[in-house]
Structure formats: C-alpha cells, structure tokens
Amino acid sequence: MPVTHFITHQINKEAQKPAAMVTTTANEAEVDDYCHLVMSQLKGTFVQRASKRYGCFNPEVTRFKGLTLNWLNDQQSFLSWTKKISEQFADMMDNTELEIDGYLAFATEELADTDKLYIFHLREKSNLCLTADMQLSESRILDFSNTGFVLCIDTSALKKEQEEGKHSEEKYFTFSFGRGDKPIQKLFSDFAGFIDTLDTEQETQEFLQIVEEYASTLPEDQSAETKTKVIEYCVEQDKQGEAVEFKTLSGQLDSSAPEKFEQFVALKKRERREVRPRSESTMNEGHNSELAQGESVIKTDLIPDRKSLKNYLRYSGKNKEVTLSFAATALGSDISFDPSENSLTIKNLPSRLLKQLKPESTSD
After folding, report:
1. Count of structural domains, the chain
2. Which residues contact 181 (CB under 8 A, 6 or more apart)?
3. Which of 16, 189, 208, 243 is 20 to 30 Å apart from 271, CA to CA?
4. What's this protein's family per the entry (predicted)?
C-alpha cells in the first residue's frame, strides 16, 4: 500500500466547556512499517463497513474544498492543510454542547490509476501491559473497532474537475458514519461539504428486481443457484470495497454465454428508462463504466447496498416475543404468507424446535 503522507492531530471537547481544544503535531509521521500497518487496519475497517455514502462536494460549501485544492496545487504543505482543517472543524464546535475525544488522522496513498485522501476519526482505549520489570501498568492503544467517521476523496478526480472548470456529480467522495456520535459525524460531513449523488439502496433494489426477472427465465433448478451466485459475488465485492461489474458477473454466471446476463441487465435498464444524457467527456473518452446506447448511456456497474443484498436471500424480523429468519426460497413452499391476516403458516419445522415444542415425544 503506497502511503505517501500520514499525520494525526488530537482534538478534544467536553460538553460542558465552550471551546474545543486542538493539539497539532509538529511533523508528519514517518511512513514506515508501523504507518503501513495502521493504514491497512483503518482501510480494512472502512472498506468492510456497510454504512458508506457516495457523492461529491456541495458547490455551495467551498471552504473545505478550497483548502484541499490549495494543497493539491502545492499552494500549501500537507502538514499546514491538516492543521487548518483540524482547527476550523474545532471552531465549528465552539459554544455547542457537542463533545469529541480522539484524533483526526490524515493519510494519502498513490495507486496505479488514482490518488486518494483519507481522514479518520480515531479513538483510544485503556489496556493493561507488563513493564520491563514485569509489573502491571495501564497503557493507551488505538481502538480500531471503535473508529468513528471516515472521509475518502479521489483526489485525481477532484483535480480533473478543477481542470475542466465545471462541477461534477461523479461519486469521487465517500463518507462513512462510524459508531455513535452521530451529531459529530454529521457536523464533519457538513463541514467537508459532502452531498449524496448516489442512492445505493434504490439502485440495488432495482438491480435485484432485474435479477429476479432474469432468474424467472431459467429452469427452476438453475434459478435459485443463479440468485445465490449473484448475491455472493455482490457481497464479496462490497466487502472488498469494489463495484459490481455486470460484465464480470455475467461471465461467472454462464461461461458458455458470458454476455447473456450483462445484456439482460442493459435491456431491463433501458425498459425502465434509467438512463442519463451522455456527457461530452463520456463521448470523447468512452468511459468504461457506461454502455453507450444512442443518445444515452446505461450504467454497467453497481455499488451495492449490503442490507438489501442480505434481505434478498432471507426474510428476518423480530419483536419482543418472536424472532424469525428464513430463506426467501422457503416462501411459497414450506412457508406461506396471508397478507389479509398478516400471518405466516410454517410447515417442516426444524427438528430441534419440534423437540422443544413436544418434549414428551422422543420420536420427533
């Protein structure tokens, strides 16, 4: 992982106190094995989260974006930029009842096809350790499992937007809400000028409807298997932080007709009129994530919503007395639903449940 910068600044504010305190670092961290290890852990946490939102900068909120472009254009150092971001964010919390404790970690990486910027809200936790003379002592360590918000910007795409001189609504900005502290996370999202441009839940729901239509054209034994393969592939791509490419998925579903599913998805998307005008840059560059169709383009990839994927294969829910979870394939066979009565009829109960229901019977 080619990390090029890594620096942290401490930020603290108690709810009863009017001002947030920022302790800035004098120098960047050395990009060594420890730095790469921490970055790997933080990126892993970020990638596996299901609570990511995708968008771009709000054109009406220019402060954060302007400072970032100043750094990208070498008008200020990375260290100076991170200090200004930390201090200005802290200023927004002054005279509020918000509270925060921990660090803002700023990191950049250079990849083969793009450069990325990350901002992580880090927290610590207490732990015990043995000193050199074998005595117990308290220590403070980073609590990766309790990482707060994460911001990720494709800085290559941001610079391209600036060079073209027009606002882009591409998904080059990712924001992930962490555990707790929702007011703080929303404040930082607003401070950074993040706005959603992609509804992953809606797009995933549409995709799953198309999958259902595709599966209905297959023999019964292939239908369930195909749906399972689609979900498994999508979940795995989501865990790796990668988009679902319909072309790749299509080849995995049917090696004898590798374009069959891809073409079916494109056809159904056209029928739903889920298209947008082809931009000049797309016509000139032949953007590989879009399939040109006359005067319009159809998206050929998907950033999936993990919750929608899981609900597609299983129905689940609970209240104070009952917890239910069953495979979607069971509906209509072992399980039937009566919408007029809001009731389920279940046959072929698990043997373990039967033993609990009929303890006097040893034959079940």
Report:
1. 3
2. 100, 148, 149
3. 243
4. Belongs to the YejK family.
